[in-house]
User: Fold these one by one.
Assistant:
Number 1:
Amino acid sequence: MSKRPVSPPTGGALIKRAKSSSNDDTREIAISSNNDVRKKSLIRSVPRTSGLDAPIVSLAGAHSGEIFSCRFSPSGHHLAACSSDRSLSLWNTYRPNTNFGLITNIAKAPLLDFQWSLFQPWIYTVSADHVLSVVDTTTGERVRKIRAHAGIVNALDRTMAAGGAGAELVVTGSDDGTVKVWEGSADDGVGKYPVRTIDVGCPVTGVCWSKDGQNVYVAALDNEIHVYDLRNTSTTPTSSSSIPHTLPLLSLQGHTDTPTSLSLSPDGNFLLSPSLSSTVLIHDIRPFSPSPTRVHRVLRGAPAGFENTLLRGAWTKDEEAHGGKPGQRVAVGGADRMVCVWDVESAKVVYKLPGHKGTVTSVDFHPREPILLTGSKDGTMLLGELEPGIAV
């Protein structure tokens, strides 16, 4: 009496087929047919869209605290992150994804935000001990340290000076209710004293330059985004402060809670601002807007949570990498430990990306390829590929 043959498995099995060619741009996934794993049939070939070693790359081990900000370098070959452990980490974007630098002597309090310099191998950082610092990424040494504000410095941004002067301008915003503009120096980073001080009147959570470097956008605790023209010197005297209150050119409304950060579109026409109300707004900042409120899009899907974290969003930068014009997509992390990527024109969610174990605090798009960088309160970062274009 012969034994009864073994029953075949109830469902199909996913099997990765060995590549038959030397082309590194594809990955093949085979699904077995007829409930037999030995009979493999190729269903489809999944194209790779970037130069990453894998579709998803985890960057961990450098920080022991929450990551507050992470950004690609202007070239895209490197990236950096700042953390509550008071350190700044430097990484290679491509293989090997090594952490080639960990700078720990920048400040005595958590580093809250940073920006890469546009023409020097420097990084500007701001911290909770009221300090603006300049770090040389080639040597790992701090070039400059300035007691910039009387309160916690939440955000900064940099641009090239208007008129082709060749100087780099840095703007910082603080809990002391002021925004300060600093002029870059080729010798020691930035000047000792600010070239312009703007009294907003309430704590500042985000700052951003206009594309021409003449206006500064300021997100404040009064739920509004104020626009200041640096050429305008209109002020009102105040009795409680030695700094006269600067009058904004205009104020962008629409938020019902504090905006957490600001990000300018690549063409300079739109402004992205997440908020503590779990609503992300895109304002139209062109001189003549078709909307009286200047609210271009209202995006939902990224909960802010109860921790009052300053979430930082980003725009796509390259036209070819994302299958359309620059600024076609925006991304913001959330307290649900996921990242939302929207199509700007349709305001629809294109991606809802998991992977982190804590609130996703910061995101950034690669300047040349469809790669999304995310940083989280779990102290890790993720690099992930996106498809160049998706119909929505």
Number 2:
Amino acid sequence: MSISSSSEFSEEDPYVDSGTDYVLSDSTDSDVPGPSRRRSKHFVSAKKGTHKSNEQQKTSVSNNTEIPNIQTVKKKGKKRVRMESKWKRNIMKSKQARGEEYINSANKLIQKKTTGPNCHCRKRCFTKIDDTQRQNILEQFYSTGDKTKQDIYLGGLISVSNVKRKRPTTGEGREKSNTYQYKLRAGSQETIVCKKAFCSLHGVSKNRVSQIAKNLTLGSIMSPSDKRGKHSNRPNKISEEIIAQIEEHIRSFPRRKSHYSREDNQKRYFLSPELNIATMHRLYLQKYEPEKYALLDDGKILKDIKPVVTYDFYHRQFNLNHNLSFGHPRSDTCQKCDRLHNTISAEANAENKTRLETEKRLHLQKAEIFYTKLREYTNLARIICYFFCDLYCVSCFFRVALS
């Protein structure tokens, strides 16, 4: 049996599906879709133009052989998703927020957070709470493991008020406009302490407490957020409109889902074997950046042209947001399914269309039952084969022992 293939996509317009599919040249219609011979995956490679065969595929049948207008889901591409929580610097930040021992960016060992030194002030803050309460305050504070939540917690223990009485001074320094009161929360009780004791018992620096108090004074940020390493000054950032344009361009190419190997690649879709990412990027430039594309036709190198959407960025968007491959499995065809699909698409009569859809659904259900039984009997035959092989080995062992 020979397999003949015809181009699925129009050579004149890569955005239009010609409607044809891989067919078997000398097979006949049957109730079981697919070639009558033993099926294996044969992919048409877009780069090498050769067939690649893999292990015998599992079978799973669906009602649709063509899925147009696929909605792209973020982080469902064929590249692995970035695990930012496992980055070295984020692990360091997490341990720092939990008060654990860690190694900083300067490769220095930072010890675990403990209660700081005694304030020795006239209020005798450390005598107001015992050792158990000190330990509970420290553990409760670092149990959140989030700097923003910790700052909000500290902000709730600081109260700001205006200076009640100002005494005349002879210095040139700035006059004090606000006074701050620091409290400790042990259970349901709150105890007023000095700033040094407040910092020591929570294991934080004075600069951090001063910044929180400053935010409370301004009144604009009642819930301070962690803005370390975050800014909006990114002049080379690709805008969301251009990213949406790239997504729309990738989705404009017709794609198909595997017919028989859906159990192996349920979320994988296939583009024309005549395409590749470089060709798609050139088509994008031709459609959205014609001036840059005209320079390519003049023989200039893509790196020297510097388009807004570079090949690397287009390639990254393609792999991260789309689970697409080029080419289709050659065994991924059934003449009866193809005939019914084309007939249903061209049928104008609603009654005949319903009858054909029912026939196709029944055909697919028969195929699913057939291949389910085939898998069950294959597994049973494999178990029986293993049993007789073990029995033969045992009999050989006893023969050698007796001899």
Number 3:
Amino acid sequence: MRAAVLAVVALPALAPVAVAQTTQTVKAVDEKTGPVSFANVASVRLGSDPQHGGSLITETQRSPLTPGQSKLSTDRVAVPKNDGERSTFGGNWEIDLGKFADATKSPYPAGIASRDHNVVAALQATTVPTAVAETNYALRDTTRGKSRPVDDTMLVLENARSAVDCSAPNKATGTTTLTRLWVRGEDDNLKQVAMPAGSASLSVKNLRMGAPGDVPQANPTNTLSDLVVSRVSSFDQLVKQDGWRGGDVTAQAGWRVDVTTHVHDASNVALQDVHTSLVLGGVSCSIPKNFVAVSGNSGNGADATQPPVPTEVPAGYLGTAAAAPAQGDYRLPLGLGLLVAGLVFGGLSIGLGRRRAARSRGE
């Protein structure tokens, strides 16, 4: 699944910003070293080799420079969202993460209600940075071609929630929780499984799941995947743009899904292993080592005392050319992650694609 990688640079322009009026001047935190938080609903790293692999990074919320919040729009209901993201991801997988108006097209097992996601990066009135990402996730292999979306679902995280709070240098915390976890195992049935606590991971082998993109001569019957679900434990595990920075003290959280697809041909000869990493609900907060919160009340991720400022940053793309692919290597092409360079006092988004997309799931 190797394709040529394009280098595209189109610096974004800022849309008009509506700034909330206050009765007193609020001092902005330092853009480069001050308290900051980030929140991302879902992003993907393709391939295990950074030189020839790539990433698909969705809109990332960044906390504003004055108290307030940046929240992901509810029109993001899936990855990929459009043809550009589908081309980068490979065309065979879909991550569903939003609300569905038609229950018959739900990718979730019975009993899991349709819901909007809540993905927020905030700067509290105390200048404490917080972030939260919560929703239901369903990873589907659409090449299965079943009549109901849920029959293509391979993994479900119900009420997955990641949150961070950097109240002080000695009090920077990250939490990652969920209600239930479902996996379609070797018997091809979608079943609830227990997620180990703490730093332990869940490993499931021999899922009847193909690669995220097409591999020449691959045989679906003979191709199996191994899946590992774990909690994000380090800042480097987040799939992020260069603009997503850390600090002297950083806390992070999120769910990590690593899939290794063992691709075989019709004669069951191994062709290659395809590695794909998903980070669902990746969040982080950072503060300087000498940070002291100002007096006031602090929330926990979504709460900020000032209402969100309506802000929109149009799409822009920043890509880097990778070395030429090796002969016979079919890994996926580099995804073009959006890097928004401007900072404004309202909510700020960094992401891939801002075009509106239809929310129907009948694709």
